Amino acid sequence: MLTVTHVEKVFSGQKVLDDVNLTLSAGEVIHISGGNGSGKSTLLKIIADWLKPDAGTSVIDGHVELGALIENPGFIETETLKRNLLFLLSIRHQTKLETVLPLVSRFGLDIQNRASMKKYSIGMREKVGIIQAVMEDQQLILLDEPTRGLDEQSLTELVKLIAELRQQGKTIIIASHDQATPIAYTDRYVLERGELTRITD
Fold first, then answer.
1. What residues have CB less than 8 Å from 172, skipping those under 6 apart?
2. In what order do the strands lie in the sheet with 66-69?
3. Tens digit of each residue's pLDDT (9 = 90 or more) over 132-174
4. 9 and 39 Cβ atoms separated by less than 8 Å
5. ∠168-126-115 over CA atoms, to 5°?
6. How many domains does the chain have?
7. The domain containing residue 80 runs over which residues?
8. What's the CATH code of the domain at 103?
9. Is residue 2 within 8 Å of 140, Cβ to Cβ?
10. Which of 72, 99, 112, 171 has a CA between 20 and 30 Å from the CA of residue 189?
11. Residues 107-127: pLDDT tens digits?
């Protein structure tokens, strides 16, 4: 599903990613840990093709749809949750809002909330970011610090959701500084000094 081969990235003369290699198949849920500035978000952006590597390649199988929540989710700040979701769904025209409503309710959000997105808290914005990353049956899902600002109930729902997505054969990469996230991962990696290393028990 995903093959990252010898990827390197340099910013201002500093090598952020150094010969990074990663191969993932359907149904894998991996965790990438690392401190602030370790390159986690950069790697996800390269996988999502939002950023080009200076060397190496990142290839997603042609049939695979990508969903991503990387860094601070961006929205149409002056519009409501409903208008934002309708806009995102209109891009591909393959999913109706009605099919997304269970996800909205699951994370304790109100689709009829008339407040604009700029008034949403960090946790609320994070929930919407998670929803948009999975709501169109995406097969490869990238989540960058997805637990940021989540309350305990929403964290529980996120854990359940990821387990369900894995059962459906979805592949998920979660990047965070915290290794203690209560999610059943198939593999764990650490990104330090630009090098991605699999953690073995």
1. 28, 29, 30, 140, 141, 142, 143, 162, 165, 166
2. 66-69, 140-144, 171-176, 29-33, 187-192, 195-198
3. 999 999 999 999 999 888 999 999 999 999 999 999 999 999 9
4. yes
5. 120
6. 1
7. 2-198
8. 3.40.50.300
9. yes
10. 72
11. 999 999 999 999 999 999 999
